[in-house]
Amino acid sequence: MALRAAELLRQHAYVGGVWCAADNGATIDVRNPFDNSLLGTIPNLGATETARAIAAADDALPAWRAKTGKERGAILRRWHQLIERHSDDLALLLTLEQGKPLAEAKGELNYALSFVEWFAEEAKRVYGDVLPTPRSDQRMMAIRQPVGVVAAIIAWNFPSALVTRKVSPALAAGCTVVLKPSELTPFTALALAWLGEQAGIPPGVFNVVTGDPAPIGCELAGSSVVRKLTFTGSTATGRLLMQQSASNIKKLSLELGGNAPFIVFEDADLDDAVQGLMASKFRNAGQTCVCANRVFVHASVAGTFAAKLRAEIERMKLGNGLDKDVTIGPLIDQRAVQKVSRLVDDAVAKGARLLSGGRLSEPGSLLFQPTLLDGISNDMDIAHAEIFGPVVALSVFESEESVLARANDSESGLAAYFYTASLERTWRVMEALEYGIVGINTGAVSNEVGPFGGVKESGVGREGSKYGIEEFLELKYACLAGKSFNSAR
């Protein structure tokens, strides 16, 4: 691994300012999804080591929350500077452990940096209020205080951005953090923790535990010391963490699965819609929670749209993310390949037309071809499942009313997209879609300014934006009484 700064490859967990192994010495191999080569190992921690990380975060909490927002923001700015300085190495590390093309990895690093910068500034903007009082002998106020120790559990698909989108607002708010990265992609998170250490984040304020997610997650959710849990991952795991957290009624942010509709109306600019779909669908080989999942195209433009889309798909190059011309990398593991293959096979068996792709580029690899299916009907599994792979499944619709009913017919409610030239339709459809995020004439909706999160079974809470820091704060109301208030008048 040709890193300019070899120190960025950390193969230990980080607890209380100490880089440590598992108590029993157990490790987990971390492999490159492109060629299955061994990148290194991480400690396989359990409940005992996780409890120590929680205790370290609790011990560090009083001093960290006592700092002013300006002081915490200054440390975050130094962290931002170091991440930026090492962004080429971090992008290489990210591509090696996750598989996405290097250009995408660099884009993700810029996205990750945006959250550190944003919340370094927001640290100074945690406001309270003086409240109007119903009685002349009282004065009332509301203040915001850090919630306390935060557990952050993240998925493997965005190993840098998910770290900074959770850790930055938590630290800015005055909380301390125990982070659990995916065991599939831990090295980027560990590198970011090392850079945080260099930036002056005090010991215990930012801890990283690695290993089997089951015992670690159970300890984090069940701990009464942890007062907030933030998680990005599957709906099934989010539901389990919510149940485990019920014993101590901790604050939760859950960013869970999506099933995004992508609607192309008859008056849409088809070239723009194709480009928007390509950007949304094939980023990270389709392994994103907000990527287009169910594509609905008006019958009057369906043929033209499919032809334009097929031409774009067939220009893509599948392969090693480190190769300059590659635009799409491997899926994360064999389970992902099996799921995508099953959905495609089921659709074809039930009458879908395979216009492009549909199989592995090389037997035994994780390189699934960019795929286009047409003629999707409601009896096919792909019409309902979150694909999480590089497969476009096209359906035809006749009316706005019918496509809205189909778009909203989902337990998920994270992101939705539509293309139209009509201003009236824009407002009408945007308000009717039962989703937390709506992209209108764009396939790219994620940034540090917009609140990221969903409704229904896609989770609770919002990340990023001015609203994101609220998830790590508690509101305290104070009522002060005194007879002298009246005489002061």
From TrEMBL:
The keyword Cell wall biogenesis/degradation does not apply. Pfam families: Aldedh (PF00171). Keywords: Oxidoreductase. Residues 19-476 form the Aldehyde dehydrogenase domain. CDD domains: ALDH_F5_SSADH_GabD. Signal peptide: none annotated. Transmembrane segments: none annotated. SUPFAM superfamilies: ALDH-like. The active site is at residue 255. GO terms for biological process: gamma-aminobutyric acid catabolic process. GO terms for cellular component: cytosol. GO terms for molecular function: succinate-semialdehyde dehydrogenase (NAD+) activity. NCBIfam families: SSADH. Belongs to the aldehyde dehydrogenase family. This is Succinate semialdehyde dehydrogenase. It comes from Paraburkholderia susongensis.
